[in-house]
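User: Hey, my collaborator sent me this sequence without any context and asked if I could get a structure. I don't really work with proteins. Can you help?
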Amino acid sequence: MSRKVPRQKRSRKGTVEQFAVLLRNNMTRAESIFWKFLKRRQKGWVHQFLPQVVVEGYIPDFYCDTLKLAIEIDGKIHLRKDIKRKDALRTRRLRKAGITVVRFKNADVFSSLNKILDLLEEVAME
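Assistant: No problem. I've predicted the 3D structure and written it out in structure-token form, which is a compact way to encode the shape of the chain:
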């Protein structure tokens, strides 16, 4: 399921922060499921994640500022060559800023959500 908000509007109408709010309010099915379970699970964690916040001019799907960790949930569109190039550039720029980027596929969220959350919990409880 793709986002209902066209990505092209970001540069033409409004700020990156406003676009982040639009993305937050129009999560994909995988992002929505991931956030629902992450939000519940992270209540006791030392480090907290937030959905679609602006980080170094980019909007990762989920981000923890104290860990400098960005999580991306990738759908089928991320298999396209042009999107892969954009993802790689974005990852390089975020890494240059000291941010680690971790990518999961939509299928991972649907089939292995508890494993993903267990891994994040290990990192976030340190």
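In plain terms: Residues 9-124 form a domain with the Endonuclease; Chain A fold (CATH 3.40.960.10). You can pass these tokens on to your collaborator as they are.
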